[in-house]
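Suppose you are handed a protein chain with no further information: no name, no annotation, nothing but its sequence. What can you learn? This example shows the usual starting point.
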Amino acid sequence: MRYVFRADASPIIGSGHVMRSSAIAEELIFRGEEVVFVGRITGLDWVNQRIINLGFSRIYDHTDQFSPNRDTDVLILDSYSCPLQDPFLGLDKWHFIVTIVDPVTPNYHSNLRLHFGLDSDWYTDKEIPILSGPKYIPIRKEIFSRISKVPKNTNVLNLIVISGGSDSLGLVSALALLLKASALNFKAYLFTNLILSEPLDQRFEIVKIGPELETLSKKADLVFTSAGTSAIEFIASGLPVGIICAVKNQEDNYEKLGKFGVAAQVGLKNSLGSWDFNKNKIEELISSTELRDSLTRQASGLFDPDGASRLVDEINAEVQKAYHSPDQLLSLTMNQDEDSI
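A reasonable first move is to predict its three-dimensional structure. Written in structure tokens, the prediction is:
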């Protein structure tokens, strides 16, 4: 089989589609499979470098540069913006189609769906099989390397504040202004590509989003981030996390991560476009070792380092099941008859 990943990333789209699907690609590449990436990555150099360095056999910017082989190709699609009627996504083009879904994903044609959430009680289409829950959440291999046994600096709390691939909505700067008004002692690393509107004091350091995140994550004591892919990765790495719901497609994560007690809900973007932060909860997270420890205890062991491997095993099992089904055998026989004419 050949596995073809279709996803895009940009400051507007964000990095989540590419980053979460790349964890599956990483496992397939590790197994020696032929894996192709098709998608546009613009304005996010660090995401582009991950795709370039991961080991794809081919990388294409546009769908018209790649022709699927329906006898061998498995499409793995992660998108909100690909048109439903895009010819590239047609069932007749692919041996098997896997879609990564959440409550705002369009109803793409697919043979199997993946939901990277803690549960899937929103899912109503029982005709198409779905893999969901913590044991099927693929986590990038380097995430678990963030877990450090080196004692942290107890004198100054190290904070990371980050929102998606570029902070296009200005969450980091808005939260920085709230933190600035606090008298608490901390060191905050602000990951943003935007220019902040007001000067900050010596407790703050602005860092460009990129590879430095891995280094600083290893010495972090607390993270504030939007309730997307990055929140799950930080929780999986053993860090206490305060989450903010920045856009509609994060509502499910925001609700479930808070409900399961593995992250603290600290704010959201309201219908008027401004931020509603829970100032008391934010300050409690910074000042209370007990609260931070309770979050990490609750999340301990929830996310499996073998999630991507288990997911790939299940995808392959479904592909083989479809290959040996009567409908699939009939389709293959018809194709062979046509080829012999």
